[in-house]
Amino acid sequence: MSQVQRMSRLMAKTLRDDPADAETLSHKLLVRAGYVRRTSAGLWSWLPLGKKVLDNISRVVREEMDAIGAQEVLLPALLPKEPYEASGRWDEYGDLLFRLKDRKGGDYLLGPTHEEIFTQVVKDQCTSYKDLPVMLYQIQTKYRDEARPRSGVLRGREFQMKDSYSFDTTDEGLAESYALHRAAYQKIFTRIGLDYRIVSAVSGAMGGSDSEEFLAPAGAGEDTFADCPNCDYAANTEAVTFQGAVAETVEHGPVEELDTPDTPTIETLAAHLGVPASATLKNLLVKVDGEITAVGVPGDREVDLGKLGEHLAPAVVELVTAEDFEDRPDLVRGYVGPQGLKIRYIADPRVAPGTAWVTGANKPDTHARDVVVGRDFEVDDYLDVVVVEAGDPCPACGTGLNLDRAIEIGHIFQLGRKYADTFQLDVLGQQGKPVRVTMGSYGIGVSRAVAAIAEQTADEQGLCWPREIAPADVHVVAAGKALQTELAVDVSEQLAAAGLRVLVDERPGVSPGVKFTDAELIGVPKILVAGRRSADGVVELKDRRTGEREELTVAEAVARLTA
Amino acid sequence: MSQVQRMSRLMAKTLRDDPADAETLSHKLLVRAGYVRRTSAGLWSWLPLGKKVLDNISRVVREEMDAIGAQEVLLPALLPKEPYEASGRWDEYGDLLFRLKDRKGGDYLLGPTHEEIFTQVVKDQCTSYKDLPVMLYQIQTKYRDEARPRSGVLRGREFQMKDSYSFDTTDEGLAESYALHRAAYQKIFTRIGLDYRIVSAVSGAMGGSDSEEFLAPAGAGEDTFADCPNCDYAANTEAVTFQGAVAETVEHGPVEELDTPDTPTIETLAAHLGVPASATLKNLLVKVDGEITAVGVPGDREVDLGKLGEHLAPAVVELVTAEDFEDRPDLVRGYVGPQGLKIRYIADPRVAPGTAWVTGANKPDTHARDVVVGRDFEVDDYLDVVVVEAGDPCPACGTGLNLDRAIEIGHIFQLGRKYADTFQLDVLGQQGKPVRVTMGSYGIGVSRAVAAIAEQTADEQGLCWPREIAPADVHVVAAGKALQTELAVDVSEQLAAAGLRVLVDERPGVSPGVKFTDAELIGVPKILVAGRRSADGVVELKDRRTGEREELTVAEAVARLTA
User: Fold this and answer.
1) Distance of alpha carbon A37 from alpha carbon A55, whole angstroms
2) Do residue B364 and residue B430 come from a single domain?
3) Could you give the CA distance from residue A482 to residue A474 in angstroms, rounded to a whole number?
4) A308 and A345, same structural domain?
5) Does the complex come out with an ipTM higher than 0.85?
6) Domain assignment of residue B282, given as a range
7) Are the Cβ atoms of A117 and B45 closer than 8 angstroms?
8) Rg of chain A taking only CA atoms, in angstroms
9) What's the CATH code of the domain at B150?
């Protein structure tokens, strides 16, 4: 039998005002409704109501992970440095990693994610292809020392995460483990009531399906994704690919130099010449493994250095500094143009063959007009490097894309053999020879999901939970004196006996108005009020989301709720 | 419907040999049976079988904590320094505390226990006596940087603990919260199948019931407790009180000085004089807040400096050093006697009025005989300060005590107002004035309980779990070929459909002998074998603990197991 939770005893003090430091809706409401309290920057205490929502999400995650045959384990959160040093992540994580020493001076870290340790566990446990495939998961406390922990539990420094890992001997096996996880994630997010999109997370260069993100659209989200209003295309903005501009065959006049003093920016240049910024060619200088390289994009676009770095990896991309110009009279700061330039020239596909541009003339205070791609200069490499903007064409259908904010709630990744190579994870294959194992890695932000659901479902009155994860099924309000309180407690006992999770507000000396406001704020899906007609055994049943209410006898209300 | 776990897929590689570094039975067996693996010193990975046992114990703990009205929360494990500095524990914990800095240089710790943070939560949440009493708990990962992490999960540096805290306005309320916890702990330990004793944890000076330990007798335990074979008295050895020796009225001769060269120790002295060590009086010199003080105990007993310190707290007790003798010609090293001594003299109650002793004569190479308490010297304070030994009288009935080894699995503590004073935790009382809150703190070592149960229940064949916490209800063994495997899987499905948790060993190419050995090692309470008589639909049901076995039809076996 479920227990009735009395509000008079519940550790959930509601607040009328938003916490001063809260910016997002979920942060404000989860604090105001008594679900969480801040212990320190990015470190949150989950109070009873919050813990119940967290547990409900964890339960759904467990059920769906178990259903695909994944096995639950629990690895330490405090981890030795060595495996992370071997994988390179001890350094790569930079300041994001919490590092510490033990009493003997040994180096440790607080695990941000556990690829290394799972690889070691499987290396210890599995020796033959017969032991694979295997999928392991844990729901565990994770750590990241965020530079600006904010948005409440949406981005904490300590958080709950479900991380799982698949181990296969073949690429086909990995694809299958990945597909199982993808399907399980769809079930999980649907069950917990999240509106979500699955988006490609990396560019097509690595294969469309090898990493996807599950995003919950929400204004408070820190991720931006591109969304086609016409077809079902959606992608992380970094993964959107531009489907090549068409080469132009129009005849252009010869290159013409223009006197352009005091035009240090694209804006001033465009205004001076009376042309749109999109008619100008911006040439960004970077160093690629130390070699100065120019990157040309239309003047109205920004270079996405992340995208550029990903295209050129493992080469290191840096911005040029003033010193880099010292021995290079050929590079005239602010007036660089691709024509006659003696360095590598990378261009965005929009800078298509045959197109003409206004660009630097490689002389101070001078620009050039009608500089034509393929006639006046050559592009060494075409790479899609601009920041995606709303209205850019959908790679699938060409329709202008929308850009939306979202919260990343899940990420699935075909890792391949990176970690298996690091730790030499082989099993004996069917032919009797060692076979290198291939891995997948899959994560769900469990505590973040609480905030994401709050963001998507809350209204002006407060939180508004989907039933499967709500902290209770019914919130019973005693709106009156002894008679109402007695009826409220009695109905609560009946509902609990029928297996429902019941919260009853029987606080003495608290007005019905305050109780109603708290009930709306706390957001249990059904609110049952023992009010004026209690003497007749009539109660009011209200749907928290729709606001619909009806008067019912106690028996009818119990029947309705337990149906 | 429960799922059937197939051994062919289970991440639980059994080992025939004990791990080289394992000293205790539970450490050996939990590793050999594939329940846990060591990730680093004192840091353990819980594999699927171990995780199930851990979860089962957690479930029982939750049910009993909920039953007494405690509310579950989850506080951070990574905690800011300030509250622990305020309570003094940032320093007091010494090397046991894992300390770290964040990217901004702020000081943090990994929580060993959470009194400070719970006090802050309640200060934030509760303002009136009407909000109390309240009991909060969490099941959480805790950290202690043990000097010598050993004994497997019995003493890890990261471990699972249930910690709870009660908050009351009155001493009577605290006593009630304490009693509720005590009763819940009895239910929990009984349900999870532990043989345990409740022992007083501190001396009677602070009140007999204000701290008790739950100890699981086991040879691998690191705690020693005194146990009366005649009555129900049991106590931590530090808490055993000596019920005063009776004053003697025998007439003794006058003090006689003896030439005793080369007798630097009690042993050499006793041998030289031909008397038992118990006839000599040992005088230990210590400094109490810097003042030299003598502590007299019978020569065959040791001073328990912990007990002495507790008696004299908050005074600081230190041992004397050679320098302390430099300006004190009255103190003759190795030959100190209480007679004529000009310093404070503390004695164990065994040094009773009227008793005569051989002791130092305060002259080099000289002892004195027939030095009588009350005639030749006075005792300033009688304090029970000796290390308890087997055979010491039971404080309750006088019978000689046994000393036994045990594992501490729970601790309940009436803290009083220490933390409430630190954080000024007051609520508005019934009279409208602030009332300081009084607290209790209660812990159960959840991961340690796994090892404690293993220690108490294992036999020569392996682990042997009580049903409530076993990783499965039934271990089905396919002992044969296709026919047996088919039957084993079929029976397993039937049992799972009836709600049982089933592990089925259907590993192809593994001999029945290996499967039997593994089943005994893994320790599920019931073992069902599909063997020689499978063609007749007859299986063998074996009780893991008693070894009793009987042949049954499949229908009979299913009925028996699901009864």
Assistant:
1) 17
2) no
3) 21
4) yes
5) yes
6) 256-382
7) yes
8) 30
9) 3.30.930.10
